[in-house]
Design a protein that fits this description.
alpha+beta; Uridine Diphospho-n-acetylenolpyruvylglucosamine Reductase, domain 2; Uridine Diphospho-n-acetylenolpyruvylglucosamine Reductase, domain 3; Uridine Diphospho-n-acetylenolpyruvylglucosamine Reductase, domain 1; five-stranded antiparallel beta sheet; four-stranded mixed beta sheet; 20 strands; 32% helix; binds flavin-adenine dinucleotide
Length: 333
């Protein structure tokens, strides 16, 4: 039986009517069976920090890991494409939406606990909650994550980080599930963590992780968190929808500096704008569409390439875009 992985689904979920019909039928069956957990034709703009994106065939919010497993196995049996959504803070969803069943784990993976300096956080826990929890229990080592508006699952998948570190530095164990609904546990050092990537997590669903923290004091941690939040507020356009940094840092360079030097600050396409405050942020300035943002991303890449011969690699993940569209931003053409 063909495995419908998220990676594959991310690439071209809408390719072919058959897949679309399968997803639609699967969504309808699930909505009948789990009426409290499944909503059909859910607009994804309500689930992304960009506030753009068309509907998913359905959004599914399982109440427990057992229920997630049951639903995933059913989707696999039906060969319906599924997508894992955290807080939607690092994705750009196509205006036409996605022919996929989108899962959120905020109910089934919401636990947080600790024993000594080992913290366990479910994938659906918000990074902000995790930071506050650690602070309350005098546990240091992730305070620099304050202000990252994602979930633990999204942070693992992205190896999110800021200022002085990345979440991967603290991860000892990861509980995950395959897209076929099988549980597995991985050691943190086998996740393939690198700069904004986790190579061996791409084809897995994160359920939670154990993190090794170090002793700190509440006062120090509170002051560190406030300092990081103040730095973000000073440098980032937090009043607008965005995905944070659009582009990864090229080796030895800062994407923001290159974009600014290429004269892109303030550049607009439709309702999307290269932030005048932070050039690596493309913001939803005024009712932008995903297409506005996509076109502006591509324009910035071309302008930077023209001037510096560097093609900026996307940090943001495109969801529901065609292979052809993805190719456009993948390399110069
Ligand atoms: C204002 C702002 C500031 C930001 N600052 C930072 C920063 O300082 N550092 C940084 O690294 N990022 C930053 N980001 C980007 C973003 O918050 C992070 O990448 C975050 O880790 C994404 O988490 P998420 O839960 O929103 O994931 P999503 O955006 O929902 O998803 C991101 C990827 O993770 C996958 N995913 C999510 N959950 C799971 C799961 N349970 N299992 C498997 N795959 C999953 C998705 O399928 C997708 O491929 C910022 C974004 C904004 C809007």
């Amino acid at each position: 039986m063909r495995v419908v992985s998220q990676q594959k689904a991310e690439k071209n979920p809408a390719a072919g009517m058959d897949k679309k019909e399968i997803v639609k039928q699967t969504a309808a069956l699930l909505a009948e069976r789990f009426p409290m957990r499944v909503r059909l034709n859910e607009p994804l703009k309500n689930h992304t920090t960009y506030k753009v994106g068309g509907p998913a065939a359905a959004i599914c919010i399982p109440a427990s890991r057992a229920e997630l497993q049951e639903i995933l196995k059913f989707c696999h049996q039906q060969q319906a494409a599924v997508y894992l959504l955290g807080s939607g803070s690092n994705i750009l969803v196509h205006d036409q939406g996605v022919d996929m069943l989108v899962f959120r784990l905020n109910k089934c993976c919401s636990e947080i606990s600790h024993t000594d300096n080992l913290v366990y956080a479910g994938a659906g826990v918000l990074v902000a909650e995790l930071v506050k929890y650690c602070e309350k229990h005098n546990l240091a080592g992730l305070d620099f994550m304050a202000g990252i508006p994602g979930t633990v699952g999204g942070a693992l998948r992205m190896n999110a980080g800021a200022f002085v570190g990345e979440i991967g530095d603290r991860v000892i164990l990861i509980d995950a599930m395959t897209y076929q609904g099988e549980y597995l546990t991985m050691k943190g050092d086998k996740a393939g963590f690198g700069y904004r990537r986790a190579n061996h997590l791409q084809d897995k669903i994160m359920l939670g992780c154990q993190l090794r923290m170090i002793q700190g004091t509440r006062e120090e941690l509170e002051s560190a968190r406030e300092g990081y939040l103040a730095q973000r507020a000073a440098k980032q356009p937090l009043d607008y929808g965005s995905c944070g940094s659009v582009f990864k840092r090229p080796p030895g360079q800062y994407a923001g500096t290159l974009i600014e030097k290429a004269g892109c600050k303030g550049l607009r396409i439709g309702g999307a704008m290269v932030s005048p405050k932070h050039a690596n942020f493309i913001i939803n300035y005024e009712n932008a569409t995903a297409q506005d943002i996509f076109q502006l991303i591509h324009k910035v890449q071309r302008m930077v390439f023209q001037q510096f011969n560097i093609w900026l690699e996307l940090e943001v993940k495109l969801v529901g875009f065609s292979d052809e569209e993805e190719k456009k931003v993948f390399k110069p053409n």
